[in-house]
């Protein structure tokens, strides 16, 4: 059967995808007796369209899945979408702002419903886009992070951690975004280096250096290093806090840097996490002088004397600082000002505004504490990687991971937003007479909590006497729920209502732990580290065996893609113009594992030309197969055959070497090397050399049949090698080869 003169991706792609779907080839049941191979898709956020970064993971993960499917494995690529808590709420807030609405003025249930509808439509769009990119994932098993069975597993994990003593609620400073009115984890804070004045302020006999004199009214001590001989006589004494009627102690702590400023630092536990730790060590009190709006609003305990300070009340902190510095200057309490002090300032990674460390009642996961079960989240994850139970494809990321895990701090998992999984926690005022043992609900957990002075109930279901309890309005950090994704997305397939420990999922048992976690290196800590910690904690097994991290997508000038630079490439738009195969091959070609991906329209156009080259090669071969009786699958060629010419032997030898090398490189996750070898072989060895030699051989009746066999043999194996990279054009050509056969998607990988 002859091919049309030109390859038209627009006419081919939808048709071929329907062929695959109709045959149910995306399901692991396509190879029911094969060994399991599994990838859990990093769920795209359900708040917008796929971008070029998504196209990268689709290409790489689909490539691996197709390769292992052709090896005869029961290959499961499980898709899903993420509600993406804070990220989605920020996107939706911008949408509301354009409509002249304020999310703080919309009732909680109504706002949640609006966002549910918003993400529901986006999820449909994301699915269509994944299909357009050729994703051969099992959409019948698709999950959403807000599916009821997923939420149930998230609740079970939280309850298990709580019972194990690894989840706690505490009053401590957290990163708080005044614009979005929510706390953020340490990873959600973007640190920017900038120059600010460093003020040297008189604290009685001491001089203290600070960039934030406006927080001095929350100071509870001045700390010096015990090794600093300059302050030995003052240690243990009290000094008067400027502009107040309070006296604060001079204490020692090894955390104080002798070389910073004067070596004496103000201790403000409410507005600095390091100061909070000092305060805990010395049993110091904590009170705030900044409110949720990021405005100066002193606690009465500050005991401020100066009436002029009242002018600063309810002002933004920058303005408050100006007022206080003027007063301190007027009273001769500022010794000097270093106007160009360089330091880092924390900002919200979404809006760019400064975050305020504010004392908040929040839920934390204790990552370095040993639970009653004997498990320690950070240590267990660290140990699993060190022992090789999880392997990083790129060694440098292993080093980064290990270093980060050794310095990890407790994780704040509660967010003051609407969109997400609400905490299964309820509070009530403590009763004067109370016997926790008499509670009939086995899920009840009572905690004597000093800050709250309330009973805390943590359970899978609301308490029996619900009218006496108030549910915590906070939702989980989205990374807490997505951190359980490999476990939850497989386990939730059963739809079981039983307890996690007793659930029996054949799918889970077969595919967990998964084979590869492939995602961007920028979420190594956000997601990968947390999946390892939580996966090990829930199942006593690693969630995946290998970690492949791809880089950022950059333009031909190696600039990061952004709308402001005008260099963003829409993967679906460019695929419509040049074909999906061209986009996929361009994303893999020339980029090693972990490195940033250089992409341009010129590069994609070049891969479109490669698709056309394959098409033209196939047209030549197919037009020269007349009267050939041997079927493709029965072709057996030996290099020692006496009837083979030197050109025949050379192309068969190079095909053998290319097959071995491509297979080896895919197994080693060196996809760029594999792609370049296939490209080289097809374009130069096959097209430029052998096709030219075959033209003369086809004219020789003695050589014709052998030449036809070799052309068909080399073409069919080339299509197999190329299929994981460029699935559409290869499948379309495969369908035109002589004799009826199974689709290329489930053909045997060449050996």
SSE inventory with pairings:
Layout (H helix, E strand, L loop, with lengths): L8 H14 L13 E5 L11 H19 L3 E5 L1 E2 L3 H14 L9 H25 L10 E2 L3 H16 L3 E11 L4 E3 L4 E15 L2 E5 L10 E4 L13 E3 L6 E6 L11 E4 L5 H9 L35 H14 L3 E15 L7 E10 L11 H10 L4 E2 L2 H12 L4 E2 L1 E2 L9 E5 L24 E5 L11 E2 L3 E2 L1 H5 L2 H7 L14 H6 L2 E7 L3 H16 L4 E7 L2 E2 L16 H8 L1 H9 L8 E2 L2 H23 L22 H22 L3 H27 L3 H22 L4 H8 L17
Parallel strand pairs: 1-2, 3-4, 9-11, 15-23, 22-23, 24-25
Antiparallel strand pairs: 5-6, 5-14, 7-8, 7-13, 9-12, 10-11, 14-16, 17-21, 18-19, 18-20
Q: Work out the helix count.
A: 20
Q: Structural class, please?
A: alpha/beta
Query: If you compute it from the alpha carbons, what radius of gyration comes out, rounded to the nearest whole angstrom?
Result: 32 Å
Low-confidence segments, given as residue ranges, are 432-451, 495-504
Q: Biggest sheet: strands side by side, in what order?
A: 6-5-14-16
User: How many E strands?
Assistant: 25
- Level-1 CATH class name of the largest domain: Alpha Beta
Please bin the fraction of helical residues.
25-40%
Beginning-to-end CA distance, first to last residue: 27 Å
Total number of domains: 3
> What would you say the CATH architecture of the largest domain is?
3-Layer(aba) Sandwich
CATH topology description of the largest domain:
Rossmann fold
Could you explain how this protein is built, in words?
There is one protein chain. With 751 residues, this protein is an alpha/beta fold. It folds into three domains: 25-146 and 480-491 and 505-578, 3-Layer(aba) Sandwich (Rossmann fold); 182-358, Valyl/Leucyl/Isoleucyl-tRNA synthetase, editing domain (Isoleucyl-tRNA Synthetase, domain 2, Alpha-Beta Complex), CATH 3.90.740.10; 600-746, Isoleucyl-tRNA Synthetase, Domain 1, CATH 1.10.730. Helices cover 38% and strands 17% of the residues. The chain contains 20 helices and 25 strands. It has a four-stranded antiparallel β-sheet with strand order 6-5-14-16. Helix 8 (377-386) crosses helix 13. The chain is elongated and about 110 Å long. It starts with 8 loop residues before the first helix and ends in a 17-residue tail after the last helix. The relative contact order is 0.13. Mean pLDDT is 91; it is low at 432-451 and 495-504.
């Amino acid at each position: 059967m002859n091919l049309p003169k030109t390859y038209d991706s627009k006419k081919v792609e939808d048709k071929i995808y329907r062929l695959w779907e109709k045959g149910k080839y995306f399901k692991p049941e396509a190879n029911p007796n094969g060994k399991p191979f599994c990838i859990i898709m990093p769920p795209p956020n359900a708040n917008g369209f796929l971008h070029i970064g998504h196209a990268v993971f689709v290409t790489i993960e689909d490539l691996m899945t197709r390769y292992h499917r052709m090896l005869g494995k029961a290959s499961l690529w499980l898709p899903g979408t993420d509600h993406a808590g804070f990220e989605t709420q920020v996107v939706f807030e911008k949408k509301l702002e354009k409509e002249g609405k304020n999310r703080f003025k919309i009732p909680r249930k109504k706002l949640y419903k609006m966002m549910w509808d918003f993400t529901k439509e986006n999820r449909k769009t994301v699915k269509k886009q994944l299909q357009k990119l050729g994703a051969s994932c099992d959409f019948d098993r698709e999950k959403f992070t807000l599916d009821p069975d997923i939420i149930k597993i998230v609740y079970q994990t939280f309850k298990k951690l709580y019972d194990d003593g690894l989840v706690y609620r505490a009053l401590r400073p957290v990163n708080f975004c005044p614009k979005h009115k929510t706390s953020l984890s340490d990873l959600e804070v973007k640190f920017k280096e900038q120059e600010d004045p460093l003020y040297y302020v008189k604290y009685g006999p001491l001089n203290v250096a600070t960039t934030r004199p406006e927080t001095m009214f929350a100071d509870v001590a001045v700390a010096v290093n015990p090794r600093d001989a300059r302050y030995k006589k003052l240690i243990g004494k009290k000094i008067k806090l400027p502009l107040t009627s309070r006296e604060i102690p001079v204490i020692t702590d090894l955390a104080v840097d002798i070389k910073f400023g004067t070596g004496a630092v103000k201790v403000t536990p409410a507005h600095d996490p390091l100061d909070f730790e000092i305060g805990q060590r010395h049993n110091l009190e904590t009170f705030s002088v900044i409110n949720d709006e990021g405005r100066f609003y002193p606690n009465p305990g500050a005991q401020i004397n100066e009436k002029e300070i009242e002018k600063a009340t309810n002002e933004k902190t920058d303005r408050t600082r100006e007022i206080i510095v003027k007063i301190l200057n007027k009273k001769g309490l500022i010794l000097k000002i270093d106007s160009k002090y360089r330091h880092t300032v924390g900002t919200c990674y979404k809006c760019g505004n400064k975050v305020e460390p504010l004392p908040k009642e929040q839920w934390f996961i204790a990552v370095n504490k040993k639970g009653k079960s004997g498990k320690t989240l950070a240590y267990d994850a660290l140990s699993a990687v060190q022992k090789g139970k999880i392997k990083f494809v790129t060694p440098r990321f292993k080093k980064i991971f290990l270093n980060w895990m050794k310095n990890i701090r407790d994780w704040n998992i509660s967010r003051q937003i609407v969109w997400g999984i609400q905490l299964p926690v309820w509070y009530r005022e403590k009763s004067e007479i109370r016997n926790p043992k008499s509670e009939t609900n086995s899920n009840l957990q009572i905690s004597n909590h000093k800050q709250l002075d309330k009973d805390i109930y943590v359970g899978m279901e609301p308490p029996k006497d619900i009218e006496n309890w108030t549910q915590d309005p906070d939702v989980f950090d989205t990374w807490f729920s997505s951190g359980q994704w490999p476990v939850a997305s497989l386990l939730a397939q059963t739809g079981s209502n039983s307890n996690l420990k007793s659930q029996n999922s054949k799918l889970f048992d077969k595919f967990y732990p998964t084979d590869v976690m492939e995602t961007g290196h920028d979420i190594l800590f956000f997601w990968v580290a947390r999946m390892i910690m939580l996966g090990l904690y829930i199942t006593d097994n690693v969630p995946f065996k290998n970690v492949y991290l791809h880089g950022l997508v950059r333009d031909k000038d190696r600039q990061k893609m952004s709308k402001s630079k005008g260099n963003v490439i829409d993967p679906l738009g460019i695929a419509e113009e040049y074909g999906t195969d061209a986009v996929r091959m361009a994303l893999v070609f020339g980029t090693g594992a972990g490195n940033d991906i250089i992409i341009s329209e010129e590069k994609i156009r070049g891969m479109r030309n490669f698709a056309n080259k394959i098409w033209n090669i196939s047209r030549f071969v197919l037009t020269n197969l007349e009267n050939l009786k041997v079927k493709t699958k029965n072709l057996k060629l030996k290099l020692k055959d006496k009837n083979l010419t030197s050109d025949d032997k050379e192309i068969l030898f190079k095909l053998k070497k290319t097959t071995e090398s491509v297979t080896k490189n895919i197994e080693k996750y060196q996809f760029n090397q594999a792609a370049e070898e296939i490209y080289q072989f097809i374009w130069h060895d096959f097209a430029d050399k052998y096709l030219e030699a075959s033209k003369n051989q086809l004219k020789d009746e003695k050589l014709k049949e052998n030449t036809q066999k070799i052309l068909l043999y080399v073409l069919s194996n080339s299509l197999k090698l190329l299929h994981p990279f460029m699935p559409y054009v290869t499948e379309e050509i495969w369908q035109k080869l002589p004799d009826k056969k199974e689709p290329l998607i489930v053909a045997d990988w060449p050996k």
